[in-house]
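User: Run a structure prediction on this.
Assistant: Running it now.
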Amino acid sequence: MRYIAYVLALLAGAALSFEGAIYGVLGESLGELETSFYNFFMGSIIMGLIWIFFGKGKLSYAVEAPKWSLLGGGLGVVYLTALVISVPFVGVGITMVGVIIGQLVMSMVIEHYGWLGSRKSRINKEKIFAVVSMMIALIFIN
């Protein structure tokens, strides 16, 4: 199962690069905010249909969930809008490397402190070296 998760993560990363490129172009035609709205509108319709036919959870329990756990939707808007704005200026590659660096740094902090229910994993020199290497890659990709 672990290897399937790795493959899914790689596929998700590839999909995000396509999404960034597509929405970067669309943002120049529609506008940045309009493109983000379009993405979430279409995504809501598609997920709504999938939910109707295949959903097994109880969406009504969202009112009982910890309030902080509902922030994901807002963070998704921030992420996508940042992509739509960044890609036309710096390109897909640089934008995605920047996204990955941000993910690595924040993931390390979250796991270091065990925030949001994650297991604790101390920041060590290898992790710092990995982030510094990515920052160097960002400079060279530029």
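DSSP finds five helices and no strands in the chain.
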